[in-house]
């Protein structure tokens, strides 16, 4: 408290430089800034209240420097983490891109890398891998069906070719001989068409398209019918056709395909066994499944 060497011009806020008294050693004190509030009195004088702001300004400057330092440190850490995460993401994207390029080049066994993190990249990779497995399975089925078609059609086509080559080398006379030749050729062509149609039906069944058309089939009754039909053929060839069936075994399936399959097996057994062989048509249970077989001892 006391009088000031400087009088504010009037009431209000004022800022004034201020130097403290010299120290006993004679050193001058630094210049500080006073913040003054001047108030008028009833007598017409001024009441001035002031405070040294130097320490407050220094504290605010320290806070500012600390804030800037923390801000710069936060920005630096964020940039470093962003760069690290970006590099990891780029590596994953690059790995997935390389895998996709390899798959496009024909390596269908390749799969998208999955790290097990459960993130978006893993979910995308798992979905793509499931799609690739389905595509690979379908292509495998196509290759297998193509091989089956080639195998099943090779023998009839070879027979038909030989028959036609023989006819070209030794042309039959018009009449019964020519009619017989044409009838045999047409019959072999019909057999080829039946085989081809059966293979297409098998492909539809394996793809799931034809499963809605399945019907209940009594396997015992089906094999009994086939045995009755082929017993005379087997006896004429010197073979014996035996039955060993369990009753009441019913399955869902395509009757025509099952008949075609069993007919092929029975005809192969009659054709490729020695005279006196026994050909057995059997049905038995195995755990929760049924097993139907055509076996022979020769």
Automatic annotation (TrEMBL):
Annotated EC: 2.7.13.3
Residue ranges of every copy of the Histidine kinase domain listed in the record: 148-298
GO MF term list: phosphorelay sensor kinase activity
Gene Ontology cellular-component terms listed: plasma membrane
Enzyme class: transferase
Gene3D superfamilies referenced in this protein's UniProt entry, alphabetically: 1.10.287.130, 6.10.340.10, Histidine kinase-like ATPase, C-terminal domain (3.30.565.10)
Domain named HAMP: residues: 87-140
SUPFAM superfamilies: ATPase domain of HSP90 chaperone/DNA topoisomerase II/histidine kinase, HAMP domain-like, Homodimeric domain of signal transducing histidine kinase
CDD domains: HAMP, HATPase, HisKA
Keywords: Kinase, Membrane, Phosphoprotein, Transferase, Transmembrane, Transmembrane helix, Two-component regulatory system
TM helices/strands, residue ranges: 66-86
Reaction equations catalysed: ATP + protein L-histidine = ADP + protein N-phospho-L-histidine
Protein's name in the database: histidine kinase
């Amino acid at each position: 408290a006391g009088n000031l060497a400087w009088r504010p011009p009037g009431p209000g806020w004022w800022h004034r430089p201020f130097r403290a008294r010299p120290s006993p050693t004679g050193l001058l004190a630094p210049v500080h800034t006073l913040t003054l509030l001047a108030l008028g009195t009833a007598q017409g004088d001024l009441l001035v209240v002031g405070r040294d702001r130097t320490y407050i300004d220094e504290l605010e400057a320290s806070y500012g420097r600390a804030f800037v330092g923390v801000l710069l440190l936060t920005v630096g850490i964020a940039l470093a983490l962003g760069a690290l995460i970006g590099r990891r993401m780029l590596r994953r994207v690059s790995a997935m891109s390389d895998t996709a390029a390899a798959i496009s080049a024909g390596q269908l066994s390749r799969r998208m890398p999955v790290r097990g993190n459960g993130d978006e990249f893993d979910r995308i990779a798992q979905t793509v891998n499931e799609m690739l497995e389905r595509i690979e399975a379908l292509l495998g089925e196509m290759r297998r069906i193509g091989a089956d078609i080639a195998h099943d059609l090779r023998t009839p086509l070879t027979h038909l070719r030989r028959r036609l080559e023989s006819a070209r080398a030794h042309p039959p006379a018009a009449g019964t001989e020519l009619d017989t030749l044409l009838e045999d050729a047409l019959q072999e062509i019909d057999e080829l068409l039946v085989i081809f149609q059966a293979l297409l039906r098998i492909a539809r069944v394996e793809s799931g398209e034809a499963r809605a058309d399945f019907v209940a089939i009594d396997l015992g009754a089906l094999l009994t019918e086939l045995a009755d039909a082929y017993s005379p053929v087997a006896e004429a060839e010197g073979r014996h056709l035996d039955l060993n069936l369990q009753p009441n075994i019913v399955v869902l399936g395509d009757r025509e395909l099952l008949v075609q399959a069993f007919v092929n097996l029975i005809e192969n057994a009659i054709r490729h066994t020695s005279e006196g062989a026994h050909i057995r048509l059997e049905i038995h249970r195995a755990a929760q499944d049924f097993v139907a077989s055509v076996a022979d001892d020769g």
